[in-house]
Amino acid sequence: MGDVTVPRNATVKLAKVDGQLHLLDRARVQSEGESPIEVSGEVICEGDAEFEGSLNCSRLNIEHGRVEISGDLETSGDIEVEHGELRVHGSLEAGSVEVDSRLSVGKSATAHDFEVG
Known about the structure:
- This protein is mainly beta.
- It has one domain (4-103).
- 0% of the residues lie in helices and 59% in strands.
- The strands form three sheets. A seven-stranded parallel sheet has the order 1-4-7-10-13-16-19, with no helix packed on it.
- The chain is globular, with a radius of gyration of 13 Å.
């Protein structure tokens, strides 16, 4: 599956995306089964979004919204949140994390660099 866009107010079930995942305001992504949602490219959230399950991606970019992940978040690259917040109920692992408002992590958080606030 190539690039995927989840429309505003929509809910989709995904297991793997080979490319970019783009979520519009109030979009929800549910994991197919127990495995994490695997995205080979960048995840871009424009507005509020929710992930039901864990998420693995190359990069996470959040613009103007609150994003909630009910499981773990693992990215090989950076997490950048502009005018928004990120809530991870499980563990977070990233290269660097830059959040201009609020970051909440339920378990452990690991990155080379954290900048919050």
